[in-house]
Design brief:
repressor, mainly alpha, about 0% strand, Tetracycline Repressor, domain 2, DNA binding, Arc Repressor Mutant, subunit A, about 190 residues
Length: about 190
């Protein structure tokens, strides 16, 4: 009755993300995921030993998708265009911060999970390295304060996505307001 259905890695990760955002780490199970995918739970176990292995593999996949876009930043030209592009790709996936926090709950229960977590951390460092030219360009063009450490600037930009939208501003207004604050500060 459809239990032998095949699924793509993209489909698997889309449902993994949706479930993680709906039920969190503790509520996430292969049973729920199998139900969403219309497969037997054992089908997922053919590929992943446990949910921690799956979640860490999913986060590597997400980071790879982000890095593919990020690698295009230098093609955008001057700092202002690069900054706009960076903010666009950061705010395409505002849920990523929540997913990263969920990933911090992962148990290091097997070698594959440990390897995935180590690799994910190295990818995060590579992301910052990839953006060094962006920061240097901003400093050269006088758009970024040269006395601030590069990692502090990048951390500030990336953490801006974690600013909550408590009053449910329209998404465009919320994003534009954050971009304005990151670009120009909060003072008039």
């Amino acid at each position: 009755m459809g239990r032998d259905r095949k699924f793509s890695i993209t489909e698997l990760y889309e449902h993994t993300q949706a479930l993680l955002l709906e039920v969190g780490y503790e509520g996430f199970t292969f049973s729920l995921l199998a139900e969403r995918l219309h497969v037997a739970r054992g089908t997922i176990y053919k590929y992943f030993e446990n949910k921690d292995e799956l979640i860490t593999a999913f986060m590597i996949y997400e980071m790879n998708q982000f890095m593919k876009k990020l690698e295009q930043i230098e093609e955008k030209g001057d700092f202002e265009r690069q900054f706009t592009y960076l903010m666009e790709i950061i705010f395409e996936r505002t849920e990523i911060q929540e997913l990263i926090n969920i990933t911090k709950q992962v148990n290091t229960t097997n070698e594959k999970t440990v390897a995935n977590q180590t690799y994910f951390k190295s990818m995060s460092i590579n992301m910052y390295t990839c953006l060094q030219n962006f920061v240097q360009l901003g400093k050269q063009e006088g758009k970024l304060n040269p006395s601030l450490p590069d990692t502090m600037i990048l951390g500030f930009i990336f953490q801006s996505v974690a600013i909550p939208n408590h009053f449910q501003l329209p998404r465009e207004q919320w994003v534009q307001s954050i971009i304005e604050m990151v670009s120009n500060g909060i003072r008039t």
